[in-house]
Structure formats: C-alpha cells, structure tokens
C-alpha cells in the first residue's frame, strides 16, 4: 500500500492534480457554510428536522441545503441541464449534428448546457425562495430576487469548480463534487448512530448488523458496477497497398448497469413532486395524495421500483444506440461470429441488452429501496447514506481510481491497483 502511494506521489503532474482537487474540495466545503443573506437559518433547520423530504437533496449538497447556504442548490441544475440536453440530442437535429462533430460539437453542447444551467438554476432558486418564504426575514420581491441571484451564482460557481477539476485535477469534477458532499455527511451520520446508542434506542448488535449490511452492499455494488457482457467481435482482413489491416478479435463490453444512477434520479423527482406540492399547498386532496406517496410506505416503494424499471429501459434506449453500433461495425468490417452484419447484428445486440438491462434495473430498484429496508431491520433511522448515495460514491471512486491507475501505468508500467 505504501509503495503504491509512493508511486503516485513520485509523479509530479499527478501530485499537482491531486493537490488541486483537494483545494477545490476545500473551497466547496467552505461555500457550504457561507449563509445566504436575508434568511433565518433556524426556521430552515426546523423545516428539515420535521421530515426527510429534502434529505437526499441535502445529502448531495453536503449539508448546504439544510443550512440554506451559498451552495444550497448544489450542482443539481447542471445535472438536470445535462440530462435534458442529452435527451434532446435524440429529437433535435442541430444537437444531433453537434454530437457527431467531435471536439467542436462537444464545445457547442457544453456551452448550451451552461446557459440552460443558469436558466434552470434561477427558476429553481425563485421557487425555493417563494416556497421557503417563512424563513426570509423580509419577504419582499427585492429580497427574493437577491436570494435567487445568490443561489444561482453559487450553482454557477460550483459548475466552474467542477470544470476546473475535470481540466486540471483528477477525475470528473461534477461527479467528485457530489462525491465530496456525500462523504462529508459521513461524520454526522456516525454521530447520529452514537447518539442512538447513548439514548438506548438501538443496541451494539444493531450497529454491527448495520455495518455488515453496509460492507456487503459495497461489495455487491462494486460487482454490479464492474459487471459486463463481453460480445466477441472479429474484423476481416483488408489489404491496402502493401499493408494488411484487420484480422484481429476484440469484444464489445455491454455494462449491466448501463444507465448508472440516472433512473433513480428520474424516479425520485417524479415521486417527490406530490410531497413537495403538499409541503407548500395546503389542500386536502393534495395532502391525501401525498400521504399515499409518503417516503418509505409499501405503496411508495412499489411505485418507486416500477418507475426505476421503466426509466432504466428508457434511458438505456436513448443513450445506447444499438443501430449506430451495428452500422459502425459493418462499416469497419467487424462482425459477431455466427451473426450476419447489419440488422441481424442490431437485433442480436438488442436482445442481449434487453436481458442484461433487466438485471441492472432490478439492481437499481433494490438499491433505491435499500435504506427503507435497512431502517426497518436495524431500527437506525435518519441516516441518508443509503443505496443511492452508495452507488454514486462507489461509481465515482472506481472511475477516479481507474484514471489515477492509467496515469501511474503510463510512467511506471505498474499501477497501484493489484
């Protein structure tokens, strides 16, 4: 372990990247403690203590939402903008053309995503300011606009930090910001468990059982995240002049969890809408609907799982274009042994993806309702570090480690992961 770390620290460029990433983390954590002007933090804290409606969003923001600080909205508007642009790429010809233009097209899409992030952030900030009007010291139009502009500026600054980490640090900056927010809540969660022990609400056996489940889930998530179906591909030999190309064999890695954590985010947004509406609109029929969708009830968990199954197939179909993959294979002389190129290859790959996506969808559904199951089994409640957060943390950690590993291998021919 020490030799592996020394290999990393010996590389000046990698060492500088890691230090830069840690500095950006420190700036992010500092921003979560800078309060938004004109807001009474005690009222916000009482609102969050009354229920766990915003618990998951607060977890992603690293506790900034419950403090209503500068980074209260976290990087969520950017994620929403990225998803919207990604989905629109399928139906808007201009975006589809940009996606095929390489680096220049990528820059145009990134620029469009930034503008959409600002618009979504400002609209979300206005909605939050109006919805939490009881926490504003002087709830005038001017105060609401100042708060909305401050929250929007915080999100834009976070977006800039994420891009700087991607360019000059290690790993994907946006993912690492979410990762840092989730990990930052770990000490508070451990403190909650300690308080439960001190109060006699739970026993040491409950804590041990919780730790065993958490460890097992980490192993399970890593196994599924790394799981893939390797479809063999062969390339025909081509003679161009005096050189021979092709003739080698490779494979197409089809991931079990192709959609990542996006289906859980989609399903959570849909299910949180009735509860969010009931939080601010005091109408009997809305409160009745919200009671049915109360987080953790059997009905809510069942609908949640079904929505995740649907969104997993939907997002996989939108982002993983099997016909384009089959056409590219045919164009470059590739074929799957025993399968004719073209439409037959597309049908074969679609059949495989349908089957492994089902396994990935059940995995995501299980991960999403896992916190409710753990709370019922161990009687440890109020811990938001559940399945969704675990999936994000493990995924980001694996991707970052792979990037560091590739940098180390480039210079030492031996990585740090054995």
UniProtKB/TrEMBL annotation:
Pfam families: SecY
Main location class: membrane
Keyword set includes Cell membrane: yes
Protein's membrane topology: Multi-pass membrane protein
Keywords: Cell membrane, Membrane, Protein transport, Translocation, Transmembrane, Transmembrane helix, Transport
Transmembrane segments: 75-95, 115-137, 143-162, 174-197, 203-224, 261-281, 301-322, 356-377, 383-401
GO (cellular component) term, any one: plasma membrane
GO annotation terms (biological process): intracellular protein transmembrane transport; protein targeting; protein transport by the Sec complex
InterPro entries xrefs: SecY, SecY/SEC61-alpha, SecY_CS, SecY_dom_sf
Entry's localization field: Cell membrane; Membrane
Family of the protein in this entry: Belongs to the SecY/SEC61-alpha family.
Description of how the protein assembles with itself and partners: Component of the Sec protein translocase complex. Heterotrimer consisting of SecY, SecE and SecG subunits. The heterotrimers can form oligomers, although 1 heterotrimer is thought to be able to translocate proteins. Interacts with the ribosome. Interacts with SecDF, and other proteins may be involved. Interacts with SecA.
NCBIfam families in the cross-refs: 3a0501s007
Function: The central subunit of the protein translocation channel SecYEG. Consists of two halves formed by TMs 1-5 and 6-10. These two domains form a lateral gate at the front which open onto the bilayer between TMs 2 and 7, and are clamped together by SecE at the back. The channel is closed by both a pore ring composed of hydrophobic SecY resides and a short helix (helix 2A) on the extracellular side of the membrane which forms a plug. The plug probably moves laterally to allow the channel to open. The ring and the pore may move independently.
Name the record gives this protein: Protein translocase subunit SecY
Source organism of the structure: Megamonas rupellensis
Encoding gene (name): secY
């Amino acid at each position: 372990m020490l030799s592996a770390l020394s290999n990393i620290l010996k590389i000046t460029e990698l060492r500088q990247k890691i230090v830069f990433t840690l500095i950006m983390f420190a700036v992010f954590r500092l921003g979560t403690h800078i309060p938004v002007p004109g807001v009474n933090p005690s009222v916000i804290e009482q609102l969050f203590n009354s229920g766990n409606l915003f618990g998951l969003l607060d977890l992603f923001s690293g506790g900034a939402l419950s403090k209503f600080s500068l980074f209260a909205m976290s990087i969520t508007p950017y994620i929403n903008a990225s998803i919207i642009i990604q989905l629109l790429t399928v139906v808007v010809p201009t975006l589809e053309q940009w996606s095929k233009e390489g680096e220049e097209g990528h820059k145009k899409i990134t620029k469009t995503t930034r503008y959409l992030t600002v618009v979504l952030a400002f609209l979300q900030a206005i909605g939050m300011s109006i919805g939490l009007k009881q926490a504003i010291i002087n709830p005038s139009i001017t105060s609401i606009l100042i708060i909305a502009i401050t929250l929007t500026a915080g999100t834009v600054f976070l977006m800039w930090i994420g891009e700087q980490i991607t360019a000059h640090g290690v790993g994907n900056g946006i993912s690492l910001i979410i990762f840092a927010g989730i990990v930052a809540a770990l000490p508070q969660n451990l403190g909650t468990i300690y308080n439960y022990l001190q109060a006699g609400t739970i026993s040491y056996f409950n804590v041990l059982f919780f730790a065993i489940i958490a460890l097992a889930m980490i192993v399970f998530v890593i196994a599924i995240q790394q799981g893939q179906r390797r479809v063999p591909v062969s390339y025909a030999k081509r003679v161009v002049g005096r050189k021979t190309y092709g003739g080698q064999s490779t494979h197409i890695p089809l991931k079990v969890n192709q959609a990542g954590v996006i289906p859980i985010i989609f399903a959570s947004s849909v299910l949180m809408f009735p509860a969010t509406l009931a939080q601010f609109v005091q109408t009997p029929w809305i409160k009745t609907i919200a009671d049915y969708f109360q987080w953790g009830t059997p009905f809510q968990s069942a609908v949640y799982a079904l929505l995740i199954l649907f969104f997993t197939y939907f997002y996989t179909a939108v982002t993983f274009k099997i016909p384009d993959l089959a056409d590219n294979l045919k164009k470059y002389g590739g074929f799957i042994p025993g399968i004719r190129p073209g439409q037959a290859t597309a049908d074969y790959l679609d059949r495989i993806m349908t089957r492994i996506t089902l396994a990935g969808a059940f995995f995501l559904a299980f991960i999403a309702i896992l916190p409710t199951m753990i709370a019922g089994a161990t009687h440890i409640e109020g811990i938001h570090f559940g399945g969704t957060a675990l999936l994000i943390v493990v995924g980001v950690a694996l991707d970052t480690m792979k990037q560091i590993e590739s940098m180390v291998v480039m210079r030492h021919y031996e990585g740090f992961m054995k």
